[in-house]
Amino acid sequence: MKVTEHLQNTTRSLISFEILPPLKGKSIGSLYRILDELMAFKPPFINVTYHRAEYKFKQLGNGLFERVYTRKRPGTVGICAAIAFKYGIDAVPHLVCGGFSRARTEDALLDLNYLGINNVLLLRGDAAVGEPTFSAEANGHRNALELVRQAVNLNNGIYIDDDLQDPIKTDFCIGVAGYPEKHFEAPNAVADLRYLKQKVDAGAHYIVTQMFFDNKKYFDFVAQCRAIGITVPIIQASNPLLIYSRYRVFPEYFIFKSPMT
């Protein structure tokens, strides 16, 4: 089921969780142990983060250095498939611009489509470690807006290779990020909202907010979005808890209202 369908069909408050893939060389078993406990909250879907490839310099025997790419947390696509199979709930993989060409992005989206995973959260992502600002991969996307457009193209059956015969259309429900307290790179809140509307106008189906610390900023953000014509659902993000015991008192301190506001 799509994220937007979960939001439309619910008669209760919904709580979902975001998890990180295990570090390379580690087992998925540690995630299962956490998720086994979190299933008591009946999450409609689980978000799974995607981590860009980084690079390090490896010294060669001739005194030169080789730039070697590595991904510390691989496996987002596989983990999403495992979650859907084991728990029978929807998984929402995150896809980022950093470290991905358009061709690799298309491959990742098609892998998800083959597996029947039809929800994605599309993000620009952070700058690579050691780089002061974000830089796109060669033939990659510069920002989330371009990434949204590629996913929408696939939904319309438009692939990079325009010689394909009768390509299938995907059916992704596309989420994007919103910033109640403004993205730190945006010149001002007005420009930030204008860019968010561009992502929605390009085809995004819902918004997930950045974590915020003042509820009033969230409600003001929703009102500002509605004022400029953004009508898609806006899901509020809360502070992640690293100790499981705190989840037992979670519902007592936080009330999650319908994100259809």
Task: Write up what this structure looks like.
The protein has 261 residues and is of the alpha/beta class. The chain has a single domain (3-253), classed as TIM Barrel. It is built from eight helices and nine strands. The strands form two sheets. The protein has a seven-stranded parallel beta sheet, with helices on one face. α5 (144-155) links the parallel β6 and β7. α4 (102-114) crosses α5. It is globular and about 65 Å long. The relative contact order is 0.13. The model is unreliable at 250-261 (pLDDT under 50).
Distance between the termini: 21 Å
Task: Give the low-confidence spans.
Answer: 250-261
Tell me the helix content. 25-40%
SSE topology string: HEHEEEHEHEHEHEHEH
Could you name the key traits of this structure?
two-stranded antiparallel ribbon, 261 residues, alpha/beta, 8 helices, disordered C terminus, TIM Barrel
What would you say about this model in short?
This protein is an alpha/beta fold and 261 residues long. 33% of the residues lie in helices and 16% in strands.
Set down the secondary structure blueprint.
Elements: H1 3-9, E1 17-19, H2 29-38, E2 45-48, E3 54-59, E4 65-70, H3 76-87, E5 90-96, H4 102-114, E6 119-123, H5 144-155, E7 173-178, H6 189-202, E8 206-209, H7 215-227, E9 234-235, H8 250-253
Parallel strand pairs: 1-2, 2-5, 5-6, 6-7, 7-8, 8-9
Antiparallel strand pairs: 3-4
